[in-house]
Amino acid sequence: MTINYSNGKKYTPLTTTPKKLTSLKKMSHSKRGMSLEDDLNDSNRYYLAHNIAVVHKKPTPIKIVKVKYPSRSQALITEAYFSQASTTDYNGVFKGKYIDFEAKETTSSTAFPLKNIHEHQLKHMLQVHEQSGIAFVIIRFTNLSSTYLLDIKQLHYYWQRMLNDGRKSIALKEIEATGHPIILGYHPRVDYIQVIKNVYHL
Amino acid sequence: MTINYSNGKKYTPLTTTPKKLTSLKKMSHSKRGMSLEDDLNDSNRYYLAHNIAVVHKKPTPIKIVKVKYPSRSQALITEAYFSQASTTDYNGVFKGKYIDFEAKETTSSTAFPLKNIHEHQLKHMLQVHEQSGIAFVIIRFTNLSSTYLLDIKQLHYYWQRMLNDGRKSIALKEIEATGHPIILGYHPRVDYIQVIKNVYHL
User: Fold this and answer.
1) A36, A79, B73, B192: which could join A65 in a potential S-S bond, CB 3.0 to 4.6 Å?
2) Is B96 near chain A, with CB under 8 Å?
3) What is the pLDDT of residues A133-150, one digit of tens each?
4) Which of A60, A98, A128 to mutate to test binding with chain B, by most B CBs within 10 Å of its CB?
5) What letters, b where the CB count within 10 A reaches 16 and e where it falls short, cover B50-62?
6) DSSP three-state, residue A199
7) According to DSSP H, which parts of chain A are helical?
């Protein structure tokens, strides 16, 4: 299904219907949904089609070592490696404001391990915050089907705590207290823009 | 040379000194500088180190077809192709505002060919503009050593003209009249943020 808007934009929801899903075997209740990345990409396409926000996932950074040219038309990469991202995965604009975030899932039901965030990503989000941009992480507890937005200032607090006393994760209770729940729906599936509006008063 | 700032950030200017450059053979006057991309990356590192702006070049989008795992530690990509970017090359934040741009060089001394910009990039910049973000192109005439910032609204005007009367380029004179010159310096080499401040009143 593709929705054509009068402004020439299109929005194609992913075709994973509940009917299809139930036909898949060995699928636990908590995994009926798509991955957080799928949900975010779908939500971002919804925002784009409805002129709500322009947010894209950045391409995966790859270090190219060898390229061949078997035909004139297309270069063939024959040796390349994944390289570490120097920033976060998502950024874009909402009402003129710069927004920037990293999205992570955990199978833990009690805490979010901080090893999911790289130090350079934390630094990048702090730089964005210093520049008055909006920076946060979206954390999903897959087994609980719950998703939260946690501002960079809070994340930074827990990161500092790790450096001070070695505590390497954020307890779910702490995320419930200092983060903001994102309600899951259909269109968009992960309406984080709604949460941003409230949290950052936009 | 690396400059260490008290805030823990570093700024390493590219080590292409005039001395080095003059030792290179067959280098015309106009090509003594680095490429526009090198200049922009250097300028963005300068902005980052001085807390002026946070702007990064996005990774090149690549479609991965085959991956091998010769060792546990590292995945080896053995077949991949360059894929077309759906957005622009650069985006980031300045004073909380979202900025987004594409950078292009031309060897023409009289006009900028519009084929340098892809239609989806134009659309993306229009979407950013609708969302109150700042979108523009940076155009360098390499043989003239001159660089301009052209706002998306102007670019859109010339694009529409192309669709109407088939004129496939923007004359240098038009860019001089409707764009904004970017003075080239040392640190930063391409001070486009200074131009943004004036043009968009930030």
Assistant:
1) A79
2) yes
3) 999 999 999 999 999 999
4) A98
5) eebbbbbebbebb
6) helix
7) 18-23, 36-49, 119-130, 152-165, 172-178, 192-199
Q: Which amino acid is at A89?
A: D
A47 touches chain B (CB under 8 A): no
Q: Tell me what ipTM this predicted complex has.
A: 0.84
A60 in reach of chain B (CB within 8 A): yes
A96: closest CA among A57, A153, A54?
A: A54
Residue of B nearest to A80 (CA): B77
Q: What are the two backbone dihedrals, phi and then psi, of residue A4, each rounded to the nearest 5 degrees?
A: -100, 125
B100/A98 Cβ within 8 A:
no
Cα dihedral B4→B182→B34→A121 (10° resolution):
40
pLDDT at residue number B31: 44
Using DSSP's 3-state secondary structure scheme, residue B131 falls into coil
pLDDT digits 0-9 by tens, B160-178: 999 999 999 999 999 999 9
Asked whether the predicted pLDDT for residue B1 surpasses 80, the reply is: no
Domains in chain B (CATH in brackets) are: 29-59+86-199 (3.40.1350.10)
- Whether A29 shows a pLDDT value over 50: the answer reads no
Whether residue B98 lies within 8 A of chain A, CB to CB, comes out as yes
Distance of alpha carbon A150 from alpha carbon A141, whole angstroms: 13
pLDDT digits (tens, 9 = 90+) for B30-81: 445 589 999 999 999 999 999 999 999 999 999 999 999 988 778 999 999 9
Residue A142 CA: distances (Å) to CA of A30, A33, A111, A145, A148: 6, 9, 12, 5, 11
Contact B62 A62 (CB under 8 A): yes
| Element of type H or E holding B113 | strand B111-113
Q: Mean pLDDT lowest for which of A17-26, B10-19, B189-198?
A: A17-26
Is there a contact between A54 and B79 if contact means CB atoms under 8 Å apart?
Answer: no
pLDDT at B26: 39
- φ and ψ at residue A76, rounded to 5 degrees: -115, 120
Single-letter code of the amino acid located at A159: W
